[in-house]
Amino acid sequence: MALEIGEFYRRDGIEIARMRADCAASFPPHTHAEYVVSANLAGYEDIRLDGKRFGALPRTVTIYNPEAVQSSTFARGKRSAEFISLYINPNELVRIAQHNGWLSRTVAPELTQGVFASPALYLPILATYRAARAQHGFDFESALVELTAALFRHSERGTDSGRHTLTDRCFKPVLELMKSHLDATLSLDTLASIANVNKYQLIRAFKSTVGLTPAKYHMQLRLMEARRRLRQGATVQDVSFDLGFYDQSHFINAFRSSAGVSPMRFAAAGGRLRSEVRG
Predict the structure, then answer these.
(1) 37 three-state secondary structure
(2) For labelling, which of 65, 88, 181, 267 has a CA lying 20 to 30 Å from the CA of 194?
(3) 45 with 33: CB under 8 angstroms?
């Protein structure tokens, strides 16, 4: 079988693989103990599932329930197929769903399976993969919660709309905690508990109001403080350490992504900045 696994990550009961299959590849009938949720990036996959036949094109999503038997081939055309697959432990899906009030039973639900052209599913899969790749635990948890919500909505099981905003009184303590803890990351559990909402509601409130997850918003607060300290003459090394970045390289990369220039150039520029060109 001409199948190549280019990347593989394991986090919190989830396995994430980025794979490439050429036209000679195939999956004989098989099954998994996990939910298998895939985003198809390129090529074509001919799938057989529950006695039905499906064609997975680029930007479509495949969903298999635990113990579902499926098979597939990649024989159409000459271009290799490429896809990202998430193998989700049923207990982890149940845990997330119960924590957010979407499921009362401890039995893993049956999702609507098959092939779907759904950006509402496709984009959360990519976000979960990217968070795992970047090794950002906070972002990974946020992405996984949003993916779980999308899977439940897709299967018509319903979720709380989560229509809270950061102007709600319950979020004032969250913002205060973020601003008073710029030297460390904060867990979703902590923030949701303070606001007395579930994690999905917390994430949606931040994304609908500021366009960022809580983790990314907190990062922006830390970088705002970094700019303030650099303007006052603090060294890059001291700012990186005092604001709790993993190491100086992590701080430099995060700062450049936000400001368009390195913190060294920012500190020396006296307020006159030009974007750095990187090859």
Answers:
(1) strand
(2) 88
(3) no
